[in-house]
Amino acid sequence: MSNTHGQSWTDTFFSEWPLPDWINEGREDKTDFRLFDPQKKWMLGRSADTGRYSEFGRIQVKWLYVRHGGIYYRQHVAKIFPEYTERDAEMQLRRLPSRIPKTVKEVRDELDWFPNELRVFHRIDASCTSSQRIYFPEFHGVITDLEKYLSSPYAKHRAIALECIRPKLSSRRILAADKEHSHGDKFKDKLSGLGSLSDFEVDYYDSLFTDRIRRLLTLHRLGITHGDIKDEHFRLPMDFFDTVLYDFSHSYTFSPVKPYLLSFSLPRPLKNISKYEQTMVESQVFERAEKLDLREHLVETIGATQSVIMDALIQPLQEELLELIILRCDEGLPACSRCLQSGRICLGYRSNDELRFRHYVVPANKPVQLLFPPQSRIVTTNDPVGLFLDQYVVCSRDSRVSRGFLDGLPSLLASVHPSSDLVRAVEIVAWATLGNKISRPDLLARARRQYTGLLCSFQDLLHCCQLRAPTVEALVIAILLGLYEIVSSDEITQEQQKHVAHVRGVCALLLSPNSPFDLLSSTQLFQVANPLLIKRDLQVQDNRGVLCAPASNHAVHNLDSILIKCHPLFEHANTQLQDPLASFYELQKTLDRALAIELAFSQWGATQDVSWKADIVGFMSQQDAEASSCPFAWGGPVHAYFDIYVAAVMNTYRKTYLMLLDVLIRLASRMGGTIRTDNVTRWEKQAHILIYDIVASIPYHLTNNLHAYQQDILSLNSPPGVGRSVGGLLLLHPLFVLSTCSAVPRPIQNHALKCLAWIGQHMGIGQGMLMSKVVPSLSLCSYVSKMPFQGYSNLPFQETAEGHVLIWAGMLLHPAEKRTQL
């Protein structure tokens, strides 16, 4: 660096570089940094950077939740800087003495990451044009009251609030062509020299290089050097595409005072630093081109083979003029369908006389406001929210009879932001279901990536719920994440069934002391959500529970109050039946408990309202069923119900009653001739009725047109149409009981396994395929035991049963106008 005696630092730094206009305006020394709006209610969440381990003395990035209308939304990120003390600066001066007189305080101020970052954003705000500010994350101000959220060792940390950049289309910046930043064909020729790239790939990497240089030079023209140019500072670690140039903690922002160090080196002119940082960009993009990472990304996301991708990439590029079409945006907020699908914020339509529109009107389409999802839709990935509503939401036609399933989700979706965690959770389940249905690995991979990214922010939301009352949104996200694991789990993993973690999250939310999810009594709502897991008795006998008509006669006991007693009985009976030393007295006590519950089951079934009774809409001979190609066809009556909720509750009654009868029959066998034969015969007959009633309900759950079902079977021309995925979801556990309970004849066990496999293959519910691989057990002991099954050694019953919790929790959600009736 040539620096003649007496030359100012300004002249040295900007030698052979255009002097910026803002230097003469005197703005470079301003230090009135903007503060994060102190009027907003906000709180810190967990780490937003999963790749950065948390350690004292390191920069941390955490989610920043801002309160709107009583709900905290993940709106920004807080970048938290550790304290840089004068002691740190003194040690640095000892390692590298300054060539110019510098005090310890001056060195501290220069090397402190926090003011470094602040100076960059202050310069961008003051001197960068509005069209160029999108090259960098938006700055929302300095957070001043950080200490109340951090423990004492971190009390002196500082933080700034920044734009929340996500690996989504809504965070990407699209830069128009700009000849000013063109670097000719030098880099393009270098790429072509590799010999392994297609013309399209050469153009892609050249464009990537040009866009990055454009961002970097904009920074340099502001008198800022980045100081830490890396590939991951142009894009998020989990994203393939560039978003913004960020992380300015090692940067230098010009001031007239010569610095102690400049980007870890001795002070030198901007032109030298700019050349070095541009060389770093070139090297990083060229390294990506050598690794063919674009090709690898296309293979992963599209799911095609290398050869197919290569054939597409080598197609000749032809230039042609494209007509610019500007579509008028739906003015309704926040449910503009195009904005919803693209993940951007819809600001409505703003008139502009300079725009010219083609005469084309797009019909308004707001899938989240559908009252009754249609029976079938064209399979598409463009509207995952609409697809989910179509496949899983059951809106109650009469709240006095049915609760439906996820009934309140459409109205809840209409009130949240299109990029909210709730919408993302819905998309995850939709993509996983569709990926299973049409064998699209790319959709499954997409769902898994979004699921992994959502887990961190959901943990933050749960943390908020621990500090305050749980929210409906948190409950629904927990349900949806659990449903995703049920949908995606067609093979067992080392972590077993991952939906169990979300089951426990649902339970924790509903059983929280601060939970607003109460019934009309002091009984916690989720006590009655799953008969197989909840072991406490109901505190109030007339509690209406979940598994009954919401406005049913209070004189009729709800099913929950009976089911709640079954799980401890099943566990106790299982232990005794496996113990050869169990006494006759102990067995008799267990038998008496089971008889009391059996009486309650028999009375409940006889007292149900006529609206809950099954309607016989057809009859199938066993010969016709066996001659058809439909795997779920079975000889006997075909049942229909008021809706899928009623069918699911009735099957829950049947399969749990069946398990109880199996206990009674096996206890009677163990106790010898002390049990009257006519009692055992009665139990066997009742079990037979329950088994065939479940079988008769299968077509109602699995076909999309029950009235045409029998005609389709008899015609032999085409199989019945596939029903909505919610039918298969609600039928999983009853079929699982049929396939494993020893009281069920082996032919029906095999039939149930075929139905489970069909649900997995055609309805997109992966756990159906998983359950179908279980070898039917020979006794109830292996069924209710927590030990693995013999046929599929890593599928414990307990974890499979816990999936039922998510289903019953989904029945709790109702639109606001219906919640007063519950």
From TrEMBL:
Keywords, ordered alphabetically: Nucleus, Transcription, Transcription regulation
Alphabetized SUPFAM superfamilies for the sequence: Protein kinase-like (PK-like)
MF terms (GO), sorted A to Z: DNA-binding transcription factor activity, RNA polymerase II-specific; zinc ion binding
CDD domains, per the entry: GAL4
UniProt keyword annotation of NAD present: no
Domain of life of the native organism: Eukaryota
Name this protein carries in UniProt: Protein kinase domain-containing protein
Entry keyword Transcription regulation: yes
Organism classification: Eukaryota, Fungi, Dikarya, Ascomycota, Pezizomycotina
Residue ranges of the TM segments: none
